[in-house]
Amino acid sequence: MPAAPGGAEDPGRQAGAGQVLQDEFNCLGRYSEGTPEACRELRSMHAGARLRGQFKVPSLRDVADRAPYMHAGQLRTLAEVIDHYDRAPAPAIGESELQPLRLDADERRALAAFLGAPSAPFEADPTWLGPPGED
Fold it and tell me: Where are the domains of the chain?
């Protein structure tokens, strides 16, 4: 995705991975009480150029209710997201494995319905929904 209007280019996971690897408080850092065996994921982590423009994909739960979409809110509707992936445009930065889907109107409607399926109302005692310390 191109940067949001007026926004700066976001390097994605590349910047975050580099910060984690350099942090002296990470699992392999000098302040860690963890064993090297407990840090398997960190030992295999890299911050190379391959991560430029990559972002962690969130859960599909309630995705139909969480607009705007993409990492900086560039797309306003789920229909725009479906159109984006259907067209598979070239990435603004980094690499992409997207291929055009060539969905017809029925397939687009079915995909939108599927993405709306894991939405459910959130039910909780209102006592638990306020900030901590408020009674």
Answer: 11-56, 57-118
